[in-house]
Every structure is written in structure tokens, then in C-alpha cells.
Amino acid sequence: MKFLFYWNGTIADDAARACYATNAALDALGAPRIDPLEFDRKFILPMDEMFLRLGVSGDDLATAASHWNKAMASRDAPIRGGAATFLRTLHDAGEYCAVISAAGEQYLRDELAYFGLTDCFDEVLTGATDKVTALEGLRQEGQALYFGDTEYDIASAVASGCIAVGVLSGYCPEDRLRSAGAQHIITDYEGMDGVTARTLFGGYVTP
To answer: What whole-number distance in Å separates Cα of residue 72 and Cα of residue 170?
Structure first.
């Protein structure tokens, strides 16, 4: 079984940072700011779709994304409870792990280095705007667990044949994750290892 993770929200506990980054991008383009409650209601992936909904023109989407990435990189955010131990346990057991993000490569690699997680992942996939294709490429054949925290994550997991595990992160409430097809819901990774994850989410599968 493969273990696939989205980074923002799923491992990094960064909803507040993402709200800040969204407003930084809107400020740079002279668009109206949003408050945290509005961010909770309007956050959606892909990012281009969210910025379009917030009034950014199609011609300015690349600029908005650039400002968003810079703002995200300018602030630290913690990682979700138990995530570092879970990832280290998977790595030490020889499990295949990959991390996906729509963010830029340098930003994500800096984040992984900051938390000491660089060596925990067999593959780091950035700029992933088409998650279905990305997950299909990572999963290939056999079972894979995909941990994600938005409707887009969950729908992509289902479409790509992965077992969808929804993570309550502040980006998306439980009812929306379940409506998108989440087969399991967690709040953190405390006490989890590879065997536990297989038993809870995928049925036991020999590594």
C-alpha cells in the first residue's frame, strides 16, 4: 500500500496562514480583502477557481498565485498533531510515501526541510493542479491511501482509485468531505503507524 498526502492543511496546519496569503494576493491586485469566516466559506481548489470567485481576472491569476506563494513562504505554520511521528514511522518501516502540493517546488521543499521531513518522502510532487492525473501516476497499480483536507482532494482521490481519508483542517467541514466521497475522517495522526492505517482505512494488506 502507498501512502499519499496533500501538504497544505493535511500535514501543515496552515488554514490561518492561507487566509493571510489570500489577502496578500488580493491586496497586491487591489481586490477587496476577506475575513476568516469568508475564507472558510469561499476557499476552494484549484486556487485559480477561488481567485476567480474572489473577483480576480483571468489575466491576473498567475500574479495572484505568485503573491500567494510568497506570502505562504513568509510565515511559519505548525504541522498537524502526530504527523511527524507518523511519517517517520512509515519511512523507517520502508513504506512508500509521496506528498503533493499545488504550491511551488522551492516553497514545499523549504517546508519539508524546516520540519525535518525531507527524507520521509519517496516523491515530492509540486505544482499539481490536476490532482486526478497526479494521483493516478503515483498510485499506478495496487492500493493507495490519500490523505486530503478539501472536497477537491477527496473527489480526486475517489476518481483516481485511491482510498480517500479526509483530514479536518479548518479548510473544509466534515459534511462537505463526506459528501465529496471521503471514506474515513480523522482530525490528526496521533498514535498512527502503517499497520494501524491499513487496519483502519484499507483493511490489512501485507506491505
So the answer is: 16
**Is 198 exposed, middle or buried, given 0-12, 13-18 or 19+ CB atoms closer than 10 A?**
buried
Domains 2-13+80-202 and 15-73 share a fold: no
Q: What is the pLDDT of residue 204?
A: 42
Coil vs helix vs strand at 167: strand
Which H or E element spans position 152?
Answer: helix 151-160
CATH class belonging to 15-73: mainly alpha
The band of 203, judged by pLDDT with boundaries at 50, 70 and 90, is low
Question: Quick one: pLDDT at residue 199?
Answer: 83
Q: Please, which contacts does 178-183 make with residues 24 or more away whose CB atoms are closer than 8 Å? A: 179/151, 180/151, 180/152, 180/154, 180/155, 181/154, 181/155, 181/157, 182/154
Cell numbers 468531505 correspond to 177
CATH-assigned architecture of domain 2-13+80-202? 3-Layer(aba) Sandwich (3.40)
Domain extent listing, the chain: 2-13+80-202, 15-73
Q: For the segment 69-87, what is each residue's pLDDT rounded down to a tens digit?
A: 899 889 889 999 999 999 9
